[in-house]
Amino acid sequence: MGLSAAAPLWGAPGLLLTIALHLALSLSPAQAWAPVHRDYCVLGAGPAGLQMAYFLQRAGRDYMVFERAPGPGSFFMRYPRHRKLISINKRYTGKTNAEFNLRHDWNSLLSHDPRLLFRHYSDAYYPDASDMVRYLSDFAERLGLHVLYNTTIAHVTLNKDRGAWNGHYFILTDHRGQAYQCSVLLVATGLSVPNQVDFPGSEYADGYESVSVDPKDFVGQNVLILGRGNSAFETAENIFSVTNFIHMLSRSRVRLSWATHYVGDLRAINNGLLDTYQLKSLDGLLESDLTDLAIVKDHQGKFHITLKLFMEAGNQSSDAIPLPQDDNDNFAMRVAYDRVIRCLGWKFDFSIFSKSLRLSSGSELSKKYPLVRASYESKGSRGLFILGTASHSVDYRKSAGGFIHGFRYTVRAVHRLLEQRHHGVAWPSTEHPITHLASAIIRRINEASGLYQMFSVLADVVLLKENATIFEYLEEFPMQMLAQLETITGKRARHGLFVINMEYGRNYSGPDKDVFFSDRSVGHMEDAWLSNFLHPVIYYYRHLPTEQEVRFRPAGWPLPRPSALHHVVEDFLTDWTAPVGHILPLRRFLENCLDTDLRSFYAESCFLFALTHQKLPPFCQQGYLRMQGLVGTESLRQHGVESGLLWDSAIMGQRQGASEQQPGDHGPGGHPLAPGPPVSPFNSNKEEL
Fold first, then answer.
1. Is 9 exposed, middle or buried (0-12, 13-18, 19+ CB in 10 A)?
2. Which of 83, 121, 408, 604 keeps 20 to 30 A from 487, CA to CA?
């Protein structure tokens, strides 16, 4: 029985199995762990990594997400240290439009599942970080995203291969020695390395990443905080009620988000220390370059601030080092401190990436962020894209690309680029008759969340077709890549284009700006170009701008100078639907650019146009002449007469008999008589509408 059971091992199948096992055991570890191929590899299962995974999965692509932690959103398991997020969770807007509501939902990722909106996970306006962890876990699980947890990628390098999509593969090696071969690498690891400034005594500072969050540990202490961002003020907010005082030291003045309109600057939720400073309740803010200073620890364990040059004078004992107050008894920081806390922000972890990838140039900004193009692709390696917070160099201190409510849209833009580049799927678009142009723009500027959050970075693009009778509408295209639009989208831009963008006034944002000055808002459409608050701006180009024109655009401009420019006047309610204030000026602008009439007409007016004009308005060409116009009735005709849109045929008959002028004759100035109101100037904007 035993022999018969073992006999198959030595038959044909058994022999093959034995040979295979022998070969596998004789191979070296590097040979045994053959690279696993994936078309798309995503590093990090945070918000940006999961957002990209969602788009790849919906498109049916071959991908894998690598995450070192046992679950998604590991950053939020620890940070912010005091657990309160500064991303708003506005659950009520008075609107049911899901796209509009995302304008005020700063935490949700994009998906087709309405259950995966953050509003279902927290009632708090500023949610707890643990709610974000729970949300991201559900997002990955419910959508069935492919995430390999507990996998730390230890090294990333290139392997040249002419057969690869980009001329090379990215080789990822994990902590077990397993290699992965990737055609495209999408890095969404965020900023994880604490910023540190090297100066004498810097080792005495507790880091934000490790300092105690229990206020009891700071009772009755003098505390010095190094830094001036949200992490510094968040730390101060947690302890300033129990300390003797808190001094905050940084090289630059505080930047308030309401003045800069940049969500990464100091938010009001954390700025209680500004009150106690300005109201002279012992706390204070100071400016100095940290590299010019030094921290000295005395024999009692207290910390003193001195100048670095004093430390370089000799090898004195700590008690013998000169202090600034020795010469200036009014030195602001002459008091001793019990604690020094470092809160200097974060930077990208370059350590796992081979130098051959050329992610950093060594400049100040590239020490914090990888070098990327406006398309979020690495400047050094084709096919390597940076997503999420780490991609913020594209719009640093300008827009929201470093935060969930911004990068969820830039991730989608990257996915659309990849679909066109590697799979021939053109950038999503819709085609409409030119008469729908104004309404299409009005709808987007009133609803679109991507334009609203990524202002001056992502823009809608309208491509005009030949003879400007049809247009193609593309949403949320990276503005600075406009010169490469045809390559990136797979569309043709040969007959002119409009670019629809949202902007703040050019002189309204900055740390030194008084954003509450009187007359700060603009209410009249004639002054729309002076609008300060976020408002739509439409650029018209007769030809697609060149790379040189985009690169050398005027300072402060998101795009090159256009053939024509239109500002839609700012609105207190951010509701750009006022017929006279918003829609009429926009339509006039579009008509001037297109040299046509975009109004809608009754069939009777189109009929008269056909008799008296050589060129009919597009509405009549596309509707009436194709027997698609509005069918007239007596009640409808009477309504048109009463509203001033149509002539009264009875009265016109009487006038016709008394006049020798026949259809086709010309009025003053040689211009043909137009049917209806265009015969004479409008008495008001409402009449023109």
1. exposed
2. 408
What rounded mean pLDDT belongs to the chain? Answer: 85
DSSP state letters, 500-553: EEEE--TTS-STT--TT-TT-S---GGGGGG--SSEEEEEEESSPPPHHHHHTP
Helix (H) or strand (E) holding 616: none
Contacts 24+ apart (CB under 8 A), 436-442: 437/462, 437/471, 437/590, 437/598, 438/583, 438/586, 438/587, 438/590, 438/598, 440/471, 440/473, 441/498, 441/500, 441/536, 441/538, 441/586, 441/590, 442/576, 442/577, 442/582, 442/583, 442/586
pLDDT > 80? residue 673 = no
The two three-digit tokens of residue 395, written as one number? 């719009």
CB 128 within 8 A of CB 121: no
DSSP state at residue 396: T
* Secondary structure (DSSP) of 303-358: EEEEEHHHHTT----GGGS--GGGT-TT-TT-S-BSEEEE---EE---TTB-GGG-
Residues 434-473: pLDDT tens digits? 999 999 999 999 999 999 999 999 999 999 998 888 999 9
Question: Looking at 117-121, 239-243, 300-304, 327-331, which range is the least confident one?
Answer: 327-331
Predicted local distance difference test score (pLDDT) of residue 365: 60
User: Reduced to 3 states, what is the DSSP secondary structure of residue 666?
Assistant: strand
Q: What is the pTM of this model?
A: 0.84
Q: How confident is the model at residue 686 (pLDDT cuts 50, 70, 90)?
A: low
**Rounded Cα gap, residues 151 and 178, in angstroms:** 10
Residue pair 419/59 in contact (Cβ under 8 Å)? The answer is yes
pLDDT in tens, 547-594: 999 999 998 899 999 999 999 999 999 999 999 999 999 999 999 999
The two three-digit tokens of residue 612, written as one number: 């008296």
Which residue do the tokens 């016709």 mark?
Answer: 656
Sign, Cα dihedral of 483, 484, 487, 488: negative
* pLDDT at residue 669 is higher than 50: no
Nearest to 172 by CA among 53, 54, 42: 42
**Residue 236 CB coordination number (10 Å):** 25
pLDDT at 363: 65
Task: Please give the sequence-ordered ranges of beta strands (E in DSSP) within 349-399, or none if there are none.
Answer: 384-386
E-assigned strand segments in 334-464: 339-342, 346-347, 384-386, 429-433, 458-464
